[in-house]
Amino acid sequence: MRPSLITFTSAIALCTLLLAPDVFAAPTLTCPPGTSARGKAGQSQYCVKPNGRRHGPAALWQADGKLVAKTIYKNGAKTTYLRYHGNGKMQLRVRYRSGMLNGPWESWYTHGTRSARGVYKKGLLEGRFTLYHFSGVPSETGLYRHNVREGLWTFFHKNGKKAVVGHYVTGVRDGAWTDYDNKGSKTRELHYTQGRLKP
């Protein structure tokens, strides 16, 4: 009995796939000159110098080959960490110095809009910090001093209008805190002393 055209075509397609290993080739790292890749392609790999120090990228993949995270090393020291959403878009980017978080950092929602940004200094949040609504409109912004909220902070409605404005002193509410509706009109004002609401 002669095989049908469909069966014959299917057999040809299968043979083509079997003879083309690149179709199933696992993702692999491209290491800097003078280094070599260690680990298993498509799972977890990193680049090392002859002295064993990590140098260049290190990567972690899902079983389907999608990149989960990438870390950049320089002479054995971690300098940058990148994490990705399942759709391939960037989720988080942070920087390191001397083994501690240091420098600007950012994070993003699955659709690519920024979700947060700030600055680390020697492992602690320092300076301007902003969170964002899913739409990309800021949801809150203010300052950190040694990982503690300090000074004026402003919170926003989803339409971009300010919702709450007030001050922090060493991480607790202090002074007047004012609430606004989503049209920008003031609705109430509360007063705090070292985090305690005044009657």
Describe it.
The chain has 199 residues and is mainly β. It is built from one helix and 18 strands. The protein has two domains: 58 residues, no CATH class; 91 residues, Histone H3 K4-specific methyltransferase SET7/9 N-terminal domain (Single Sheet), CATH 2.20.110.10. It has an 18-stranded antiparallel sheet that branches. The chain is elongated, with a radius of gyration of 26 Å.
Give the structure's gist in a few sentences:
The chain is mainly beta. Helix content is 7%, strand content 55%. The protein has an 18-stranded antiparallel sheet that branches.
Keywords:
199 residues; mainly beta; Histone H3 K4-specific methyltransferase SET7/9 N-terminal domain; 2 domains; 18-stranded antiparallel beta sheet; 1 helix; 18 strands; 55% strand; elongated; disordered N terminus
